[in-house]
Design a protein that fits this description.
481 residues, alpha+beta, protoporphyrinogen ix oxidase, domain 3, 7-stranded mixed β-sheet, 3-stranded antiparallel β-sheet, 18 helices, 35% helix, binds the ligand C=Cc1c2[nH]c(c1C)Cc1[nH]c(c(CCC(=O)O)c1C)Cc1[nH]c(c(C)c1CCC(=O)O)Cc1[nH]c(c(C)c1C=C)C2, Protoporphyrinogen_oxidase, porphyrin biosynthesis
């Protein structure tokens, strides 16, 4: 019943690194797509102040914008016009929260009513804690270089002699984009389907990918997959040997092994806090319960407690967002609750409490009073890392520390380092794996080359950040995390 989706266009590597994996594992026929033109892709809503507002699509009409304006959700949007005139941040400012950046440069109301909802829908996080330098990387860099994000964008275009649109990227991101173009070869039909899709998933859910990967790896014969063997500790080998000594397994009877090189997805609690999210899947036999067709809706931080005492973050309209997964008709939705709202909680709602809370959310917000005939409640503890203020400095310290200690024999991958999307993590893993080829595994990289590399960001044609090898598959290089 769970309804995870994969983004057609993710940040950084987009689907690029995942697509060849799907192709190589022979899973292309198991993929189902939601096309960009379908309501499930186009219609994303924000609940404000007590109604669903459709977020502007790629090309919003004047009527769309006017409808949004009337609800008040766009209050403060005129701040965009004065943004080029807002003084540049002081030189001593090394980071700022997303909320503070927007309040300073545009208007606090836009941050609270609109942007906080979008950040709920990605990080389940609080814009007043998350880092603008990391998560609004492009805008942060443009302000740093030109004194303004919006004005800077246009100045960057006009100052550049090249005929096409340019963007600003970190040299390491450019290098990765070039490598993808050189090394990734996609079936043109598959590439076209992905290009036309907003999200894609598998008929039997995302587990399809994990299971196929497991089978493929096991079939190689030289790989052993061990589960239920938590890492207890690890350290660099001593006595002149290069490598990592790892203690794993049961605390009572751990085993110690040495490796020439280890790739770790373990988290480090000094770099980011995490948030806990509860997801409640609800199924109703009545297929016409949704007030609108679309992907779902998000709830901004400005919604008062009385309208959202359950601390819901958003609701996905699964049966509208993804077609082709279900064997029976009906309405399927997922209520997502918690995230930063539950920071510091020592205990969380039980499964039964979660179910009741989710039912109250959809009754209050979208008038669904039917009784669901099936449900699934899942509490994901500490599931999404929060790139809070100062994250990039903490990550840099960490990267320098492990490089010093392990001299390249420990490399790291995962959502704490690469981004919260599945695509981000696969891109990170792809890049680390590439770096091991030939003599690469003997090098000093710890897998976090970008954060260690202090070169200036560079202006390049936006097309250089796109996958152009086959059918123009889209890859956005927005310079974020
Ligand atoms: C309500 C909570 C959440 C919803 N999804 C997530 C949460 C916490 C988790 C999530 N959403 C996105 C990612 C990144 C995945 C990737 O890039 O591969 C994660 C971990 C993507 C995303 N979802 C929404 C947006 C605007 C984005 C950014 C990328 C994009 O534009 O595609 C919107 C959104 N998320 C949720 C809803 C209900 C919703 C919009 C109505 C649920």
């Amino acid at each position: 019943m769970a309804s995870e989706t994969l983004r057609g266009r993710g940040r950084r590597g987009g689907q690029l690194t995942r697509a060849p994996q799907i192709q190589e594992l022979g899973l292309i026929d198991a993929v189902i797509y939601t096309k960009r033109s379908e309501p499930g892709a186009k219609n994303r809503f924000v609940y404000y102040p007590d109604t669903l507002n459709r977020l502007p699509s790629e090309r919003p009409s004047l009527a769309d914008l006017f409808a949004l304006w009337r609800t008040g959700i766009l209050a403060g949007a005129f701040g965009m016009l004065k943004e080029p005139m807002v003084p540049k941040r002081p030189a001593a400012m090394t980071d700022e929260t997303v909320g503070s950046f927007l309040a300073r440069r545009v208007d606090k109301r836009i941050a609270d009513n609109l942007v906080s909802a979008v950040f709920h829908g990605i990080y389940a996080g609080d814009i007043w804690q998350l880092s603008a330098k990391t998560l609004l990387g492009l805008a942060w860099q443009l302000e740093g270089r030109y004194g303004s994000a919006l004005g800077g964008f246009f100045r960057m275009q006009s100052e550049d002699q090249r005929p096409h649109q340019v963007t600003i990227v970190h040299p390491v991101d450019l290098q990765v984009a070039k490598a993808m173009n050189e090394e990734i070869d996609l079936d043109p039909h598959f590439a076209k389907s992905l290009k036309d899709a907003s999200v894609f998933t598998f008929k039997d859910g995302q587990q399809t990918l994990v299971r196929a990967l497991q089978s493929a790896v096991e079939a190689k014969g030289n790989v052993e997959i061990r589960t239920q063997a938590p890492i207890q500790s690890f350290k660099a080998l001593e006595g002149g040997d290069m490598g990592v000594e790892i203690v794993s397994g049961d605390e009572a009877s751990p085993s110690t092994q040495s490796f020439d090189l280890a790739i770790s997805t373990l988290r480090n609690n000094d770099i980011t806090p995490y948030v806990t999210v509860m997801t409640v899947n609800l199924y109703y036999p009545n297929p016409t319960l949704l007030p609108v067709q679309g992907f779902g809706y998000l709830i901004p931080q400005s919604i008062p407690f009385e309208q959202n005492p359950e601390r819901a973050l958003g609701v996905i309209f699964d049966s509208s967002a993804i077609k082709g997964q279900d064997t029976v008709e009906g309405t399927k939705i997922t209520v997502m609750m918690g995230g930063h709202w539950w920071d510091g909680w020592e205990s969380y709602p039980s499964q039964e409490e979660g179910l009741q809370m989710a039912k109250r959310v959809v009754e209050r917000h979208i008038g669904i009073t039917d009784e669901p005939t099936a449900h699934l409640v899942n509490l994901s503890r500490d599931c999404i890392p929060q790139y809070t203020l100062g994250y990039s400095d903490r990550l840099k310290n960490f990267a320098e520390g492990i490089t010093d200690e392990f001299k390249g024999r420990l490399r790291v991958v995962g959502s704490q380092f690469n981004g919260v999307g599945v695509n981000d993590c696969i891109t990170g893993a792809w890049n680390v794996a590439r770096g091991l080829r030939e003599e690469g595994w003997k090098g000093r990289s710890c897998g976090l080359d970008k954060i260690i590399d202090s070169r200036e960001w560079i202006v390049v044609p936006a097309s250089e950040m796109a996958y152009v090898k086959r059918e123009g598959l889209d890859k956005r290089g927005d310079g974020g995390l």
